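so ive been stuck on this for like two days lol. basically i have the seq below and the ligand is magnesium ion, smiles is in there too. i just want the complex predicted, nothing fancy, no docking runs or whatever. if the output looks off dont worry ill sanity check it later, just need somthing to start from for the group meeting slides
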Amino acid sequence: MAEIIRIEHVSKVFVTGSEQISILVDVQLSIEEGTVVVITGESGSGKSTLLNITGGLESASGGTIRVAGYRVNTLDEFELSTYRAHSLGLVFQFHYLLKDFTALENVMLPAYMAGTARREALEHARVLLAAVGLEHRGEHYPSQLSGGERQRVAVARALVNDPDVVLADEPTGNLDERNSALVQQILFDVVRTRAKTLLLVTHDATLAAHADRHLVLAHGVLQPQ
Ligand SMILES: Nc1ncnc2c1ncn2[C@@H]1O[C@H](COP(=O)(O)OP(=O)(O)O)[C@@H](O)[C@H]1O
Ligand SMILES: [Mg+2]
């Protein structure tokens, strides 16, 4: 199996006033294509920081990050947007769906913006909405959906550009237990069916139960659970 994510000696220092806080000290991570990896850690341990660095949303203080052939920490703005549009799917705790667009439009928009023809984007969005069990909700607006359904739309949207890697930050953190279990199952099913690589960070250790690998972030380093 080919390695799709390689993180070497990544560090992150936040400077606030005269204070320097070392959040990531020396993070090492190698992930093979098609693997589902869950990273847990206490609140404030740096999980979101690590995920944002991997997704090119935040810069590292040191080290190298390679994802799907991109050297993420050396990309310029244009290359970064290409990387995000074509190789990454992102799911966050809050869905960030556009309220004036239907579920179907929300899912197809990233494809349309990446240059896919409208009809093809629509077709792909329909398939993905069905994959998350919402084929009958395509014409509904986010305000007409439950929290769990909105998050399922966000999962479908993350996959619309057929990314190699899906990054998820507390994707079920805003849901009750039942919806949390359902969204988790759908997310894992969808990425496994499509042989995507999933890197999910959460404080909720129950999400690690169905992962291929479970790592723990503590004191700025990653260790196997
Ligand atoms: N921009 C920032 N400036 C200063 N400190 C930050 C910044 N972003 C995050 N932090 C701090 O870094 C630590 C890790 O944050 P975060 O990665 O969000 O942790 P987690 O996702 O594990 O809860 C926290 O203590 C947080 O307050
Ligand atoms: Mg976080």
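The radius of gyration is 17 Å. The pocket of magnesium ion (ligand 2) is lined by residues 47-48, 169-170 (CB under 6 Å).
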